[in-house]
Design a protein that fits this description.
The complex is a heterodimer. Chain A is mainly alpha-helical. Chain A is built from 13 helices and 2 strands; from the N terminus they run ααααββααααααααα. Chain A is flat, with a radius of gyration of 23 Å. The N and C termini of chain A lie close together (9 Å). By secondary structure, chain B is mainly alpha-helical. Helices cover 72% and strands 0% of the residues of chain B. Chain B has 11 helices and no strands. Chain B starts with 6 loop residues before the first helix and ends with a helix. In chain B, 47% of the residues are buried. Classes of the chains: A mainly alpha, B mainly alpha. The interface between A and B is large, with 67 and 55 residues.
Chain lengths: 304, 282
Amino acid sequence: MIKAVARRVAAGAVVLWAAATAAYLALLAAPGDIVDAIIGDGADTPQIRAQIITEWNLDRPAIVQYLDYLLRAVQGDLGRSYLLQRPVAEVIGEQILPTVQLALAAAVAGVVLALVLAVTTRGRWARRASSTAELVLVSTPPFLIGIVLLSVFSFQLGWFPVSGDQGWAALALPAVTLGLPIAGVLSQVLRDGLDRALDEPFAVTARARGLAERAVLIRHALRHALIPAVTLLGWLTGVLIGGAVIIEQVFGRPGLGQVTLQAVGNGDMPVVLAVVVLAAAAFVVINTLADLAYLLIDPRLRRS
Amino acid sequence: MTIALPRPEVRRLTLRQPRPGIAAALIVLALVATAVVWPALFAGDPLAADPLHVLETPSAAHWFGTDQLGRDVFDRVVHGARHSLSIGVAATVIAVGAGILFGLLAGLTHRYADEALSRSFDALAAFPLVLLALLFIAIAGTGTTSLIVAIGIATLPHYARVVRAQTLVVRQAAYVTHAVAFGASRFRLVLRHVLPNVLGPIPVLAMIGLGEAVLIAAGLSFLGLGPQPPSPEWGAMLSEGRGYLHIAWWASVLPGAAVTATVISLTVIGRHLQSRFEGRHQ
């Protein structure tokens, strides 16, 4: 058990290290002088150049530069934005809360909707209708969903504020927008898991014990159906973070999305690098947790 | 967003897909393809502004209405097919090409090189697609070319992993061992015996992947990172029309609907082909 846990944690750490390295290599590969790339559109004075050279150890051998970058990243020092003249960690720390709120609310909305869809649409026609709905949801650009919801619920009906970050009412539409495509994918996976679980001998046993079909479904089959859905947690993180960047823009919400887009537009590389590496870290951590959750759920995996 | 679902899931879903759905998807794709190759067949000038007829509701004269400059939205959507799809197709070509190359390399080389390449695929896959593309654009600058390369790199690991897995199976096959016994050169072995048998699932994956690439491209264009106005790219049109949403929904919703229709059609056909392909192999 301990060995299996250690193996998964180590694998996660390797991927995280590789991701941080890839981001660093991307910076090195930028055309032109690396100092120019780090300054971006910020003020370009000899003092700032000197500061960048010391901070990134550009006067030292390449290997020292790289190791120092890794060391600083591990310690949570994400560098300094020369455009904003502030540490990157501070910039991100200020804006991360609305994005995390949005991502969590969207995850809850998506998972709840997927569960309801998968459990309630068991009949032939209901299933066909909801399969079609799922296909439409996963094929529609999230910003279009956002714009349609905005158009109907904010402009026509006036139920929700049009933009901004004023409490829970302003969170509802963005969260649903981001949650719908997730619900589309998850409910497909859950439905298939339910179908497979209901074919298993334990379902027959449960029915033979006189359990109602609904109880078999919810108390027995659903647990099994959740296992493949756990695998999707890592994917879910990526979709939530990547989607949040776009959805925040649609609804004019503050958050990491705006920070990132501004940084991309102004060539503020330290901020872009930090956001990207942070997103990869979130992916790796959640994926590793999902792997560990598997070990808890399925004892057979603990052996190898 | 398309992701790799567990295999039986995909098969069951496609068996459930009604035939009329496939016919409709084929018709949509045929229309889109025509719009890409020969937009003038359906539509007039996408850039012709008419200040006297701005933000008009859809009518017989303007099927999709007009936008804030009085341009015909239908004309723009038709011409936009070329912009939007060429980005998706070019990105998919890059991803598939590089994916085959790196996947083959990983599958054929010895332990350490394979391990290093596989971990690189994992690392690439750890970044959310949109953010990886943003990183690339931050470095290479905005523009259609960097958008294409960005999406190509971001979607590469998917194909590389499949090709690697296929290569590991194929290199054990009897016909490969026989070819070695007959003294085939390394180069010939890979090109004539391994490669063709590795490529099997790629066209179908690429079709589903194309839908995904079109979606991401539209998203990044929506953020202003793709073709610049007045280019009639679907995502960019949506972003332009967004400011007039409260008075003219058609200027943003209809270009978005074009993206949705195209992606759904690609996904339906892709899944259908996948079910036929897997049926043949199981």
